[in-house]
């Protein structure tokens, strides 16, 4: 029975504890250790099993608990050193997204995986969606004709308390070290990765971004974007446009819009609702393969069960993320452009008309500056060198 540990057991780590609990109860794994720098928070849906040890240092845990699989759910800038320690200890990884912050870190981690023979699954859980598989099959079968564009739109809200959740929240550096929060890098990273997955179906191989065009905005005194439009230009593949905000007027969960010469498809990726050409309305497609269960199956049969989100598949995302981190600071939107509601930690700031213009951007494959939005700024246009995994 695989011995599993979680490093970063509070915060989003509680989601992983809830995912582990039924597998532990079913005897498919044994949760042996939790690690966090703070006292372990209660999670009614996933009580800590008897015999599970608790630690504040992951190295101490690795030596004492000797896990077979380690889930790492810590701030992104800590991922690489913890991951290298886990691999050196002989364990496989389930590493939260974003896995690393640069192509150099990606290469270092890939090298360690090759040297140790261990496996690394990255926490893009939406890639396990049956709805995504059906969308990809429709694209591959030509039901949309030639794909001419891939877009995504998502409009969420985050209160002031969201940016007080941790010392690195809303930051691009911390104590002189690169970190990265922001709409594109963190909560809406799944939207970008889903688009890259569809592009992979179109091209037959993980895409290699040749250029990104980026507009970043913010409604608070933070160092990262809470609103952005991003275009990814790929050689031989359709352009990808992401139009996202954490300052939305109304909630849009997240849609991937695939446009072709003979049809159009829309996947609402958080809910697995899919609209294909000829369908009268979107339908929920049940079934999502869990990343941890897939990793356990891969450990048992490496040749017969491929990983859903191996590190190599995320290389295009990391290449884009690196440029987002290095791009100029986002433009502040204030004054009559924004509306605030509520007070204290629950205050929410929204951008007037943002939902409509972001939807236009995603559907038309355009940046806000190309849609004559009066407050939009010229994009940063960044060529990307060819990258190897």
TrEMBL record:
UniProtKB keywords: Oxidoreductase
Residue ranges of every copy of the Gfo/Idh/MocA-like oxidoreductase N-terminal domain listed in the record: 3-124
Keyword flag Ligase: no
Source organism superkingdom: Bacteria
Claim: Oxidoreductase is one of the keywords in the record: yes
The protein, known as: Gfo/Idh/MocA family oxidoreductase
């Amino acid at each position: 029975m695989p011995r599993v540990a979680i490093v970063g057991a509070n915060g989003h780590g509680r989601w992983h504890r809830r995912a582990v609990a039924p597998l532990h109860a079913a005897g498919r794994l044994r949760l042996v250790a939790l690690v966090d720098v703070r006292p372990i928070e209660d999670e009614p849906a996933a009580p800590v099993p008897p015999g599970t040890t608790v630690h504040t240092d992951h190295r101490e845990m690795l030596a004492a608990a000797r896990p077979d699989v380690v889930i790492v759910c810590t701030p992104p800038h800590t991922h690489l050193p913890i991951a290298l320690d886990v691999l050196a200890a002989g364990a496989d990884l389930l590493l939260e997204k974003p896995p690393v912050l640069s192509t150099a870190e990606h290469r270092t981690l890939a090298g360690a995986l090759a040297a140790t023979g261990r496996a690394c699954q990255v926490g893009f859980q939406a890639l396990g969606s049956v709805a995504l598989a059906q969308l990809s099959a429709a694209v591959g079968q030509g039901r949309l004709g030639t794909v001419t564009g891939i877009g995504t739109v998502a409009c969420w809200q985050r209160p002031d308390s969201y940016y007080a959740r941790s010392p690195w929240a809303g930051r691009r550096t911390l104590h002189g070290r690169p970190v990265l929060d922001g709409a594109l890098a963190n909560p809406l990273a799944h939207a970008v990765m889903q688009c890259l997955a569809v592009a992979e179906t179109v091209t037959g191989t993980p895409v290699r971004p040749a250029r990104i065009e980026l507009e970043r905005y913010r409604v608070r005194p933070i160092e990262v974007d809470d609103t952005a439009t991003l275009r990814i230009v790929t050689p031989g593949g359709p352009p990808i446009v992401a139009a996202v905000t954490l300052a939305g007027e109304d909630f849009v969960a997240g849609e991937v819009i695939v446009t072709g010469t003979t049809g159009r498809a829309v996947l609402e990726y958080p809910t697995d609702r899919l609209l294909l050409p000829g369908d009268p309305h979107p339908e929920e497609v049940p079934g999502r393969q869990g990343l941890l269960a897939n990793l356990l199956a891969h450990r048992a049969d490496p040749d017969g069960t491929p990983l859903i989100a191996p590190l190599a598949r995320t290389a295009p995302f990391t290449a884009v993320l690196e440029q987002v981190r290095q791009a100029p600071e986002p433009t502040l939107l204030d004054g009559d452009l924004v509306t605030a509601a509520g007070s204290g930690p629950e205050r929410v700031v929204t951008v007037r008309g943002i939902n409509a213009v972001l939807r236009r951007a995603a559907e038309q494959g355009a940046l806000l500056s190309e849609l004559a939005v009066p407050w939009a700024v010229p994009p940063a246009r960044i060529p990307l060198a060819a990258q190897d995994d």
